[in-house]
Write a structure and sequence with these properties.
Blueprint (H helix, E strand, L loop, with lengths): L9 H34 L1 H8 L2 H27 L3 H36 L7 H13 L1 H16 L5 H23 L4 H26 L14 H35 L1 H17 L1 H19 L3 H34 L8 H15 L2 H16 L3 H26 L1 H40 L1
Helix pairs in contact: 1-2, 1-7, 1-8, 1-10, 1-11, 2-5, 2-10, 3-4, 3-6, 3-9, 3-11, 4-5, 4-6, 4-9, 5-8, 6-8, 7-8, 9-10, 9-15, 10-12, 10-13, 11-12, 11-14, 12-13, 12-14, 13-16, 14-15, 14-16, 15-16
Length: 451
């Protein structure tokens, strides 16, 4: 069912939209968490490091795909907020054609270059084969990534953040069983975890597609609306490609940092992998708030109501601050216990490094909250190209850490790389929002004067 976010209390709307989305993100993390738990416990530290060593390049490619899908959904949300139903359907149709094209091209390119990428990243020799076995399966499943993320993004742009969650929860449960079956029963190794992830996400995507076609009458497209339209394609690409690039530019910094971690040893890789898995679960609310603000901003800009955009930003930032304090407390009280999900208790040094990594990151969770909230709001307002620069600032910070700090200070510098990236991004994003708001206000005023 569609949800109009241009009316009612911003705080209630944001919470009502973000909470279901949060559950979806948590279960999405279960894909990678269950992989890591089973791989770490059944296959050992080297296998865990093999999966962890692919994390940044995984984010580089899969993040681009997810960003593109999120960007394609922005014109849909704006058309929905403006009550332009025919334009909405044309945007949906052309986003489908573009998703198919992007999925095929990206899958072919990255699959062919997979091993070379791992070699450039200086993946340790004792884990590179395992890393390749895992990531090649993930890359072959890129069409599935587009299927789920595009259908889920369309549903969210219409105000339905719950339905994608329901199907993702079912897929996450299936993923657990498939992980055990592929790794423990079939002895497939790390590639078994990747197969389980791809199959589970495929089922979630198909379920979203079938539900969307059956329940949303607003999406009943005519043959003419299915036609490729250059003007619609250009607007979709102007939104989607910058969002995808923003993820990828950010990820390039992560690749640089991952390469530096790889150069230390496989134990350092395992520590960062375990710490990052726990942190990624804890920061899901920030991702949920960010995605909420993209839809909220898109609909309210479409409706021409900037005052509601301001109120939404304040409400969302307050939620981000409150949760940051809660998450930090969880890390300091229970962080080591959470790390034992991925690591054997006997790996004392790895656990100590992972715990230190996790605690330093937790101190800077509120700057991360602002990165997500403000960046996605800017994108939802229609300025995806500008938001790309936030990713460039993150890349710069991680590049400084990877090239200059880690070689001299070792694992101690790794702990501060992410916080440095979040602060750099905020330095750009906060002034950028006020700039975007002024431009949008001027455009809306001119539209009202000419009406």
């Amino acid at each position: 069912m569609e949800k109009d976010m241009t009316k009612g209390s911003p705080m209630k709307l944001i919470l009502g939209f973000a909470v279901p989305l949060l559950f979806g993100l948590i279960f999405q993390q279960f894909y990678s968490m269950v992989d890591a738990i089973i791989v770490g416990q059944y296959l050992g530290v080297d296998a865990l490091a093999s999966v962890g060593a692919t994390g940044s390049v995984n984010f580089l490619i899969i993040g681009f795909c997810m960003g593109v899908c999120s960007g394609f959904a922005i014109p849909i949300a704006q058309a929905f907020g403006a009550k332009h139903e025919e334009a909405l359907r044309r945007f949906v149709a052309n986003s489908v054609w573009l998703s198919v094209l992007f999925a095929v091209v990206i899958t072919v390119i990255v699959s062919l270059l997979c091993r070379q990428i791992l070699q450039v990243m200086r993946t340790p020799e004792n884990i590179i084969d395992g890393s390749y076995s895992y990531i090649i399966v993930i890359f072959l499943g890129i069409p599935v990534v587009f299927l789920y993320n595009m259908t889920a993004a369309i549903l969210r742009s219409l105000g339905d953040s719950r339905t994608p969650v329901v199907f993702l929860v079912l897929a996450a449960i299936l993923n657990i069983f498939l992980d055990v079956f592929c790794i423990v029963v079939l002895s497939m190794g790390v590639e078994g975890a990747a197969v389980a992830t791809v199959v589970s996400q495929a089922i979630a995507g198909i379920a979203c597609l079938l539900y969307m076609r059956k329940k949303f009458t607003i999406l009943k497209l005519t043959r003419d609306e299915w036609k490729w339209r250059r003007d619609y394609v250009e607007k979709l690409c102007n939104m989607g490609i910058p969002m995808g690039l923003q993820y990828s530019i950010t990820a390039i910094g992560s690749v640089i940092l991952q390469s530096s971690v790889n150069s230390i040893d496989s134990n350092a890789v395992a520590a960062v992998t375990a710490g990052a898995k726990v942190s990624m679960l804890l920061v899901c609310p920030f991702d949920a708030l960010g995605s909420t603000m993209a839809t909220y901003g898109g609909q309210n800009v479409g409706a021409g109501d900037l005052e509601r955009v301001d109120r939404g930003l304040k409400a969302c930032s307050l939620l981000g601050l409150l949760y940051s304090l809660i998450a930090m407390a969880v890390v300091y009280l229970f962080g080591k216990n959470l790390l034992l999900l991925f690591l054997d208790a006997g790996e004392a040094q790895i656990i100590a490094n992972a715990s230190s990594f996790l605690r330093v990151n937790a101190l800077f969770y509120f700057p991360l909250a602002l990165v997500n909230i403000v960046r996605f709001l800017i994108q939802g307002m229609g300025y995806s190209k500008l938001a790309v620069f936030a990713g460039a600032f993150e890349m710069l910070a991680r590049g400084i850490a990877g090239f200059m700090l880690v070689p001299h200070f070792g694992f101690s510098a790794v702990r501060f790389a992410n916080p440095l990236a979040w602060i750099f991004a905020d330095i750009f994003l906060i002034p950028a929002f006020f700039y975007v708001r002024k431009i949008t206000a001027d455009i809306l005023n001119r539209q009202r004067e000419s009406a």
